[in-house]
Amino acid sequence: MNVTQATRLVAEREIRVKLRDRTFLFGTLFFLLIAAAGTILPPLFSGGPSTVAVTESLAAPLRAAGLEVRVVPHDRAAERAVRDDDVDAAVVTGPAVLAMDDAPDDVVKALSTQPTVRLLDPDAVDPVVAFLVPFVFAFVFFITSQTFGVQIAQSVIEEKQTRIVEILVAAVPVRALLAGKVVAGAILAFAQIALIAVVAVLGLQLGDSGGLLSLLAPAIGWFVPFFLIGFVLLAAMWAAAGALANRQEDIAAVSTPVQLAVMLPFLAVIFLNDNATAMRVLSYLPFSSPTAMPLRLFTGDAAGWEPIVSLVLLVLAAGAFLLAGARVYEGSLLRTNGRTSLRTAWRERETIG
Amino acid sequence: MTRTLRLDGVDRSFGDRQVLRNVSFEVSAGRMTGFVGANGAGKTTTMRIILGVLAPDAGEVSWGGATLTRQDRRRFGYMPEERGLYPKMTTREQVTYLGRLHGLDAAAARRSTDALLDRVGLGERADDLLETLSLGNQQRAQIAAALVHDPEVLVLDEPFSGLDPLAVETVVAVLRERASAGAPVLFSSHQLDVVERLCDDLVIIGDGVIRAAGSRQQLRDSYTVPRFELVVEHDAGWVRDHPGVTLVELDGARVVFDLPAGTDEQPVLRAALARGPVRAFRPVSPSLTEIFREVTQ
Predict the structure, then answer these.
(1) Quick one: closest CA in A to B44, which residue?
(2) What integer pLDDT is reported at residue A211 of this predicted model?
C-alpha cells in the first residue's frame, strides 16, 4: 500500500464519520433552508404591481402600465381608499399621486414620460448587487473554511487524545494521515457548498431572478479553484494547529493564528471592496485571494491574466503550507504530554516518517 | 528461514535524558518473549522504536536479517501502552479500518474482523459504539485491533493490564496461537507472575540498559543460588545454626535457606532426619520477581 491508498482510506473514514454526525447534517440542512428561503421568498413578498384608486377619466394610462386599477367616483373617494389602506396609491386631478408614506415608483412611472437612456458601460453592476456579492463570497469562504478547518483540527486532536494515533503512525506514513484529513475536509466543504449553490440557483430561477445568475456565473467559475486551493492552505494550518494541542480544550489557544489568517482577509475584503488599490493587493495575497480575485473578476476590474497569476501564487503558498504543516504535524503528533510549542514541533521530528 | 527480530545497539535520548543505552536483544520466531522493567526503565520507548513510532538516535532494528522497513512494520501487530480507539465508531468498523490500513483488502478485513471479535468474545457487541463498551471490553477490542491483519510479529505493551482473569486467559490463548504459528511475540508486563507463566524468553531492562536476556530456564539457572525448602515435624529453628546455611524464611516447622554455591545439601537433610521425621525437602527455583530484583538492583 502506498501513500495515495493510505490517504484514500483515511479520507474515506473521515467522510463516513462526518456523514453520520448529526451536528454536521443539521448544519447543512439549515444552510440549505436559508439558501432556499433567501432566494425564493423575497420576490414573493415584494408583492405584485401597486393597486391604484382613480376616477375613470384618469385610468387609461395606469391600465396600460399593467397596474391594478380601482375606479372610484371622485377624488375624495380615491383619497379615502388610500387612507383606509384599501389601495397602495391614488391618482387625483392634476394629475397628482397620493400615497401614505412611500412613493409608488410604478405609478409615477406610468404617468411620466421618460427620456431614452443609452448606457455607455452596460456591464457595470447594480450597486446593491455589487455590495452583496462580495459579502456572500467572503462569507461562504469564511464560514466554510472555519467550520471544516475546526473539524480537521478536532479530528487530529481526537486521534491524539485517544492515543489511537500511535497505532495509525505505526501502520501508515504520517503524511497520509494529514493528506487524508485535508482531502476529506475539502471534499465535504465543497460538496456542502455545491449543494447550497444548487438550491440557491434553483431558488433564483423559481423566484425569477435569473438575470443575477448570468452575471455571477464567470465569478463563480473562478471562485471554485480559488476556493479549493485556499481551503487546502488553511486546512494544512488547522491540522498542524490540532497536532500541537493535546486536548479538545486547547483548540482555541493553538488555533489563534489560524483564526486570524481566516478572519483578517475576510474583514479586509468586506470593508475594502470599493477600494481598487486595496482589492488589487488583496487579490494576490494567498489568504485573501480566494475571495478577492473572484470579486475583481465579478466587477470586471481584473484583466484576463490576473486570476491565473494569483492562482499560481496561491498554489505555491498552499504547497509551502502543506509541507510546513506536515512537518509540524509529524513533530507534535506523538507528544501527548501537554501542548507542544511550534518551535519544538518544527525542530524535532520524532517519527521515522 | 528463521525470522528473528533483533535490536542492535539502540540509543535514544529525550533532551538531556538518555532513556536507552546500547539496547540489544532478540525476539525469536515462535517464542513468547516477556519484557520486564520498572516504570520508566525504557520498555515503551523500546517498543515504539521497534514500531517506527520513534526514531532511534543510534543503532538498528532488523527483521529476518535485514533492516526493518515501513513495509515490514505494516505486517507487525502493535498494542501501545496508552490504549485508544475511536470512541464514536463501532468496534467492527474500526477494527476493519485498521485491518485495511495494514494492507488488507475490504473483504479480507471484514472476514478477519468478524472472526477475531468472536474469538475475543466481542461478537455480540461488535456493532456498538466503542465508547459504550466497558473498559475490559475496550481492551479486548484493542487486542483485536492489534491482530486483525494476522501480523508476522507481535509487539504488545502491557497487553494484560485492565483485563479480568477470564479475559487474560482468552488473550493468552490467542497469543500462544500466534507464537506457535511462528510469530515472534514480545510483550511487556508489570505482572511478573503472568510473565513467568507465559514467556519462553525474558528480557529485563533497568534504567535503559538491558540487564539480562535469555530463555527463562537459562536465566533461572544463572541467577540461582542453591535454595532449599525443608519441612519437619516440629520447630525447624535449629537449621540456622547448621554450617553454611543462610536463613531466608522460617515459619515454625517450615524453613527456606540458601547454601553457598557448590555445597552439598544432603548433610542438612541427614541432620533433620536425625532429629525426627522430615515431611518435605526440595530445591526452590527463584521466582521471576527475585531474579528481577537481583538484576535491577
Answers:
(1) A166
(2) 64
What stretch of H or E contains B280?
strand B278-283
> DSSP state, B285?
P
| Interface touch B74/A169, C-beta < 8 Å | no
Asked if the Cβ–Cβ distance from A173 to B70 is below 8 Å, we say yes
A88 shares a domain with A7 = no
Give B20's strand partners.
B12
Beta strand B246-251 pairing with B254-258: antiparallel
| Whether A90 and A176 share a structural domain | no
Rounded to a whole number, what is the distance in Å from the CA of A237 to chain B's nearest CA?
23
> Is B105 in the A-facing interface, judged by CB distances under 8 Å?
no
Test the B interface: residue of A158, A167, A172 with most B CBs within 10 Å: A167
Which backbone phi and psi does A14 adopt, to 5 degrees? -60, -45
Quick: pLDDT tens for B209-249: 998 898 888 888 777 777 889 999 888 889 888 888 888 88
Task: Note which residues in 9-48 of chain A have CB less than 8 A from chain B.
Answer: 9-10, 13, 17
> Domain of B227: which CATH number?
3.30.70
Please check whether residue A349 touches B, CB under 8 A. yes
The conformation of residue B239, written as its DSSP 8-state character, comes to G
Residue A352 has pLDDT above 50, yes or no: no
Q: What phi, psi does B201 have (nearest 5°)?
A: -120, 165
Predicted confidence (pLDDT) per residue in B169-212, tens digit: 888 888 899 999 989 999 998 878 888 888 899 999 988 999 88
Give the pLDDT confidence score for residue A130 in this predicted structure.
Answer: 64
- For the beta sheet containing B278-283, the strands, ordered from the edge strand earlier in sequence to the opposite edge, are B246-251, B254-258, B227-232, B278-283
Q: Are residues A211 and A249 in the same domain?
A: yes
pLDDT number for residue B26: 93
Min mean pLDDT across A125-134, A309-318, B138-147 is at A125-134
Together in a domain, B170 and B247: no
Report how far apart, in Å, the C-alpha atoms of B65 and of each of A127, A203, A262, B32, B215 are.
75, 68, 52, 19, 21
Among B221, B252, B271, where does a domain finish? B221
**Measured between beta carbons, which residues in chain B are less than 8 angstroms from residue A173?**
70
A33 lies in the same domain as A98: no
Render pLDDT for A120-162 as a digit per residue (tens, 0 to 9).
665 555 666 666 776 777 788 888 888 888 889 999 888 888 8
Same domain, B55 and B126: yes
Q: Are residues A208 and A130 in the same domain?
A: yes
Give exposure, A263-290, as e/b (b: 16+ Cβ within 10 Å).
eebbebbeebbeeeebbeebbebbbbbb
**Is the same domain home to A197 and A65?**
no
CB contact under 8 A, A166 and B100: no
- B210 in contact with A, Cβ within 8 Å: no
**How far apart are alpha carbons A301 and A130 in whole angstroms?**
12
Q: Quick check: B1 pLDDT over 50?
A: no
Q: At which of B193, B221, B249 does a domain end? A: B221
- Chain A within 8 Å of B95 (Cβ-Cβ)? no
Total number of domains constituting chain B:
2
Same domain, B47 and B166: yes
Q: Do A60 and A140 lie in a common domain?
A: no
Q: Are residues A269 and A209 in the same domain?
A: yes
ipTM: 0.80
> Which residues does chain A have within 8 Å of residue B85's beta carbon, measured at their own beta carbons?
162, 164
Inspect the interface and report whether the beta carbons of A171 and B52 lie closer than 8 Å. Answer: no
A172 touching chain B per CB within 8 A: yes
Interface contact flag, B84 A173, Cβ < 8 Å: no
Range of the domain at B117: 5-221
Same domain, B157 and B283: no
Domain that holds residue A69: 51-103
Contact A352 B89 (CB under 8 A): no
Q: How confident is the model over A211-224, as pLDDT tens digits?
A: 666 666 766 777 88
In this structure, is residue A276 part of a structural domain?
A: yes
